[in-house]
Specification:
Elements: H1 5-11, H2 37-40, H3 112-121, H4 123-141
Helix pairs in contact: 3-4
């Protein structure tokens, strides 16, 4: 995602580093004073856990949740500044893809969960059950549209 100059100005932290220079970190989304985690006082302050168990993530960090943009670039809410969206400026182009083409709750084939199921049960069983689930979801939504992509 390449931010424009206006977007960069709205996303940069307004805090000042110890050496007096402006902070170069991204501000948190929806912070009223446009500050990063360190300048807003939300950085880690307690003792760190010595070692995490293998295969387990004990951190509580998540990716920053940007408020969805509803500009005309896409007919659905999307991350600001992504793809055709030029947040905070209006888009130059709009997507022709209709909203709602993916069925909710249907296992997509490009995920790690799908690959784990194929390894455990074999591709034939997973595909058969995937088609059954997709048919049930389409029936529950009252939609007879064909399944799209993955």
């Amino acid at each position: 995602m390449a931010y424009s100059d206006a977007a960069r100005a709205r996303r940069r932290c307004t805090g000042t580093r110890k050496d007096g220079k402006p902070c170069q970190a991204w501000a948190m989304w929806n912070d009223p004073e446009q500050r990063c985690m360190a300048h807003a006082g939300r950085h880690h302050t307690g003792p760190m856990q010595a070692k995490r168990p293998p295969g387990k993530c004990v951190c509580r960090w998540r990716r920053a949740q940007a408020p969805p943009c509803t500009c005309a670039a896409y007919p659905w809410p999307h991350r600001p500044g992504s793809g055709l969206c030029r947040w905070p400026e209006p888009p130059q182009e709009t997507s022709q893809a209709p909203a709602g083409e993916r069925l909710p709750g249907v296992l997509r084939t490009d995920t790690a969960g799908y690959r784990m199921l194929v390894e455990a049960f074999g591709k034939k069983d997973v595909e058969r059950q995937r088609e059954e689930i997709a048919a049930m979801v389409r029936g529950a939504l009252g939609s007879n549209r064909p399944r799209s992509g993955s």
